[in-house]
Design brief:
153 residues, alpha/beta, Rossmann fold, 5 strands, 52% helix, globular
Amino acid sequence: MINKILLPHDGTEILDKTLEKSKEFAKALNAELHILHIIEHIPIPSSLILGNDRQWIAQTRRSIAKKLKEGWIKMAKEKINPLLEKENIKFNITALTDEQPVSEQILKYTLDNKIDLIIIGSQRLNKFSKIKALGSVSRKISENADCPVMIIH
């Protein structure tokens, strides 16, 4: 039985298409839709740390992550909430900031929230670009998740 569906959403066009499919599944299965946005950790180049205040850099980075998180939650409330409320879909919108890779954060969220199905978007790539995609988030999720994963192109 599928009671909880996870949609990792980064705001890109492919994810808007994935949101539509996720809505269809959530409505048909009467499942709760979890929409997760990860604020990616951006490493600081070592040259920036040299001769600079590390504490100030860390504080500034946390402040930027907080603003990005607040901005995404605001956008979700304005654009995503009305779509789901209109369809009477139960939902939960979360944004996370962490230093772990995005795929690890998604997998951890999946376990912590007992997700039954992950619906994730992936861009169609030509034969040369596919070589670069070996480390993509959707691939890592599909290979390591403990629940079914649906990849939308």
